[in-house]
């Protein structure tokens, strides 16, 4: 579907588990906008400082400059008059109010690209990502490779001290390889207290 011919806005969501290439796909779409001479702005949650405070960084170290924000409402005050596209990485870290802002931007003619984890370490829908997928014009659901069996991975496994996390552990724990693994449905584990 080619939305460049349209003057109307729309929403695209890139979702999947960790290590599926979501940020890499987001960066690929931004590079295509550069070739098309489209003006865009990139935003990321302030909570995500794993690799950089002011860059979107993929696990394979591809980077783009980004504006670090704490709330979806912060986007509006940073927008430039010539902005055509709004790009938001790690959307799962924003609260549910992001949905309203993204829908308003699309309704006002912006192309909005969002990337984030669709499920948390429990395998349950992660925050605003599910609702964003529901209202978007385009959803790209990526998979990783299960680090246990080598099959397609759709889940993110949290590991604490070498063991799967407990169900009642905090949802948000920003980390990388040392804390998370990609797993398929069969190999994904969440321990419940007895």
Brief sketch in words of this structure:
By secondary structure, the protein is of the alpha/beta class. It is 19% helix and 27% strand. The radius of gyration is 17 Å and the shape is globular.
Structural features:
six-stranded parallel sheet, 4 helices, alpha/beta, 194 residues
Radius of gyration: 17 Å
Shape: globular
Largest sheet report: 6 strands, parallel
Distance between the termini: 49 Å
Report the helical percentage. 10-25%
Number of helices, where a helix is a run of at least 4 consecutive DSSP H or I residues: 4
List SSEs in N-to-C order. EHEEEEHEHEHEEEEEE
Q: What is the number of E strands?
A: 13
What does this structure look like?
The structure is a single chain. This protein is of the alpha/beta class. 19% of the residues lie in helices and 27% in strands. It has a six-stranded parallel β-sheet with strand order 5-2-6-7-1-8, sandwiched between helices. The chain has a three-stranded antiparallel β-sheet with strand order 12-11-13, with no helix packed on it.
Give the secondary structure arrangement, pairings included.
Elements (H helix, E strand, L loop, with lengths): L9 E7 L5 H14 L4 E6 L9 E3 L5 E3 L1 E3 L4 H5 L6 E4 L9 H10 L3 E7 L11 H7 L2 E4 L2 E2 L6 E2 L1 E6 L2 E2 L15 E4 L11
Parallel strand pairs: 1-7, 1-8, 2-5, 2-6, 6-7
Antiparallel strand pairs: 3-4, 9-10, 11-12, 11-13
């Amino acid at each position: 579907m080619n939305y460049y011919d349209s003057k109307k806005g729309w929403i695209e969501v890139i979702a999947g588990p960790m290590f599926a290439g979501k940020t890499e796909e987001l960066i690929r779409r931004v590079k295509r906008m550069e070739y098309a001479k489209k003006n865009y702005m990139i935003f990321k949650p302030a909570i995500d400082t794993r690799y950089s405070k002011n860059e979107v960084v993929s696990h394979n170290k591809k980077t783009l400059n980004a504006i670090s924000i704490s709330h979806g409402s912060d986007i509006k005050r940073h927008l430039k008059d010539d902005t055509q596209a709004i790009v938001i990485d790690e959307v799962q870290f924003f609260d549910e109010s992001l949905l309203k802002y993204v829908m308003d931007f699309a309704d006002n003619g912006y192309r909005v690209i969002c990337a984030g984890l669709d499920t948390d370490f429990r395998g349950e829908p992660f925050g605003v990502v599910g609702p964003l997928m529901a209202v978007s014009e385009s959803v790209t659901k990526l998979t990783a490779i299960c680090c246990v069996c080598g099959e397609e991975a759709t889940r993110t496994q949290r590991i604490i001290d070498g063991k799967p996390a407990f169900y009642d552990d905090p949802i948000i724990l920003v980390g990388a390889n040392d804390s998370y693994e990609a797993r398929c449905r069969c190999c994904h584990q969440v321990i419940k207290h007895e």
